[in-house]
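Q: How do we represent a protein-ligand complex in a form that can be generated token by token?
A: Start from the inputs.
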Amino acid sequence: MTVRKSTAALTAAEKRAFTNAVLELKRNGIYDQFVDAHNWFLTEDSDFGNRIAHRGPSFLPWHRAFLLAFEGQLQKVDPKVSLPYWDWTVDRSPTSPLWAADFMGGTTRDRDGQVLDGPFAASGGKWPITVGVDSRQYLRRNLGGSKVELPTKAEVNSVLSMPQYDVAPFNSSSEGFRNHLEGWRGSSIHNRVHVWVGGHMTSAASPNDPVFWLHHAFVDMLWAEWQNRNPKSSYVPATPTENVVDLHGVMSPWTDVTPADMLDHRKFYTFDSEGKR
Ligand code: CU
Ligand code: CU
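Then emit the structure tokens for the protein with copper (II) ion bound:
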């Protein structure tokens, strides 16, 4: 069984295994298929039309399925690898080991945001950006440079205490846990982390930055934690509803994955924190 660990708990060997597996998926072309898929959905998802991966209730199960598919590919390269999660309520500094040269890398150039060190630096030649908004082929970030702060524990706790999973009209104007965690309302939790990292993370092709997976693994963990705290609440809508994926609706691009299939992460993996938080 896969155990997802905090980035802060990874050994040097675990960091190396993770980044090596990511680099191999980049080399063999699989990585950019994921970037492409995310780019397509983020561009298509809309408040008043179909919304599958973002701006609607299936934001959480869609990204869970997306992460599972990616983790499955990593494990084909190296069966020992799992997706680490970045707890940005604790690990909040641009000088954290998360951004060191032996993991995500983080030294960026003021002039153009280019990531200069680590496995994904353009200078290493292994991380050309091929899917995205412009022709610059180097990974870009602006850690903490956008004047937003990372979400705090108090902000996360206030969202985890919201008893309803989602509320009509099931879009970016909704009340409820999903929309507050996604970040279109309230303190902008998930969205704000994309902005804090900056560069590619603020684009539709955000998985161009491998920290995307670490961020979303933590958002995924927060969903599990919300389920734990709100055992009587469940995914809504439970019945067919225009433009959104109901509990038993199929989530594109998969042909056989529904939100109901994704509700219990323990079918697939556990977290190292489970039972400890
Ligand atoms: Cu997304
Ligand atoms: Cu995201």
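The longest strand covers residues 2-4. The chain has one domain: 2-271.
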